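Title: Prediction job returns without error message
Component: structure pipeline
Severity: low
Priority: P3
Assignee: unassigned

Description:
Job completed but the reporter wants confirmation the result is attached to the right record. Sequence as submitted:
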Amino acid sequence: MNRIQPRFFKKLILLLTFFVSSMAYAQQHEAPAYPLITHNAYFSIWSFNDTLSAAPTRHWTGANQSLTGLIKVDGKTYRFLGNAEKTYKTILPAADEDFYTVKYTETAPAATWMNPGFDASGWQSGQAPLGDNAQQDKTRWLSKDIWVRRTFTLNQADLHKPLLKLRHDDDVEVYLNGKEILTLGGASGKYIYSDVSDAIRANLKEGENVLALHCTNTGGAAVLDAGLVDEVPGKNDATVLTALQTSVDVYATQTVYQFTCGPVDLTLTFTSPLLMDNLELFSRPVSYISSKLQANDKKVHEVKLYFGASTDIAVNTPAQEVTAQQYATNTLSVLKAGTTAQPVLEKKGDDLRIDWGYMYVAAPKKQKPIQYITPADQAIATFVSGASAKATSQGKHLVLNTVLPVGKVSASPKEAYLLLGYDELYAVQYFHQNLLPWWKQNGETIDQELNQAAAQYPSVMQQCAAFNKKLYADTKAAGGEAYAELCELAYRQSIAAHILVKSPQGELLFLSKENYSNGSINTVDVTFPSAPLFLVYNPDLLKGMLTGIFYFSESGKWDQPFAAHDLGTYPIANGQTYGEGMPVEESGNMIILAAAIAKAEGNAEYAKKHWKTLTTWAEFLSKEGFDPANQLSTDDFAGHLARNANLSVKAIVGLGCYGMMAGMLGEQSTADKYTAMARDMAKRWMVMANAGDHYALTFNDKNTWSQKYNLVWDKVLNLNLFPKEVYDKEVNFYLAHQQAYGVPLDSRKTYTKSDWILWSATLADNKADFQSLIQPVYKFATETTDRVPLSDWHETTNGKHVGFQARSVVGGYFIKLLDERLRKGVKQ
């Protein structure tokens, strides 16, 4: 379904109706970033620009993972996908290339410590990187300060644009031959390239040099690593023109671009078929890149398509060496690449990319593809010139190239496509056992998956188009056009922050990665906000988010009377690694979600399997939940809080949910007990939290306020613990206190969480109030100047994202649709 023109008019109406005063603030765009290839936390490629050819495509972390697309029309070349990356020549390697040795001290040295002639013979020696991560850092640094000296010899000082390659946590001072070249505050967990070219040129010399650094750890993690690189001058081919992009649309499973390439129009569609009613298809790690070509001048034109995929898709850093090969199956021509080292499941953390397993680019043989492997700096030139490519099978920063000779294109559309896949070999480690991805559970191979993907191409494309249309229609009916578009943006992002595997006990596990936060795996308070999406489309996937947490307790590996926070740090799920628990938060979350599954399925069989554990958590909430002690909640970025009224709501609703499930299981006395307990607590809550025209953030301070988003489950599950007047009072207060980009989370700061706004808006008893509360979130998504995958944590005053991106919690946007479904008695 083509909605380009309707969307244009829709957005114009929305702007005129709601945002006339702010039209000058920012250019409207379809999304803050555009999903292209979306399967899991590692296989996830995005465009961070409105125009697809403006910059290299990237992993959600921001690292370049370039996809490139060119088209030749009658010999003239146009670029439509991706752009040239900056490339660097190493002068002095950082630790991602070589574990170099330095001299260091953690005791404040003499003032001349950075000078070339300084005597550092009394300092310690150690390999870089230096830091507090026992698994990743070669030299442990656990103190507040560290001073480092690195001596090196340079044979040639004639450089184009020398840059400092640096990774630091936290504040750092950098000296070259005794002269300060850079001072930076804060931290960067990834390598940054600082342009201090003039300072480097002025102080770098042929012969012996000294790079010296002082780093201060102000709190949290610690790391220090540095090198020098020279930026390689870019080579712009003046014969390559830029295709005119005329539109882009984001649908649930597809992102569709339209281009004019001289006399030929191109429709480029990225499809990740994440259809939750078919787990075989859903788990298959293969996306389609489809091209539809049509002459726009009623003439016939000779056309060739080129696609390049960087092997950086299969590495954590570009410095890692890869091997690549070309081969064929019965029906496909295939390119394959992966690191030579293959460190399977050796790394864990947040800002990491996969460096094990293999990426694949495949095209049907009937399309007569031409495939070859080149270094990155030769890929485009080889296609443009038509020269033969030299075979390359090993190196760094290679490109897998595919040419599709489409042939003659007229007014009748012609279609071509290729497949991009990834075989991660093993997906996660679960309590010290490496687990295969779900798609491999019966011994399937990636070649079989690629062949099936090609054979099923017409059917899959039809299924995706039908699902896109239905999701849009359903969400629009539930909450309006802006709501529907927010759900479209959230769909693939939420799913792609998970991995689907089977546990050693034979149970489905759907494990999340806490993207751009702390990298935890299967975080309960990340599962909680994302749950509405999966309750709508497949509750089994939500069970897969809860099952591991139940196992952690039921196996005796977690011995607390409340639910754990997480199962580890992605992709290693060997037990909680978060520094402290969230006792009321996670126990309430687990009970509420078990009840939501029961409501969605019409039975409490899943809860019955874990009834003893749920009972333990309910008993904990009955004692500790109503007036919570000083502790963290899911909004841990806001800090610890005692007597948290919203957290109290979670405990009350959790107890009501436990009573509901007990009733469904025929345990009527237990149902009566806990339902009465929850209702009594709700009455007391209304008195203790009452602050006149709203309910307070904490019971002890009536001059505060907060979003009571936890109330939404009382409404969605029809528990009737709180009277409607509570919802109405809160909604009216939110409407009066929202800013340009949404309702603040609470009275302490002006930032917000967009998933919670959608939950708070669902408390409204009419669509007008609901839409008034979500319009600023839509405004944020389509106007923010921060071009990263949709953030759930942003400033309500200026639309800037505060932190977080590409997280699964945006699945919470589907709460309104879930409410509509359950209210109408529609089984999922």
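Comment from assignee: result matches the submitted record. The first helix runs from residue 4 to 18.
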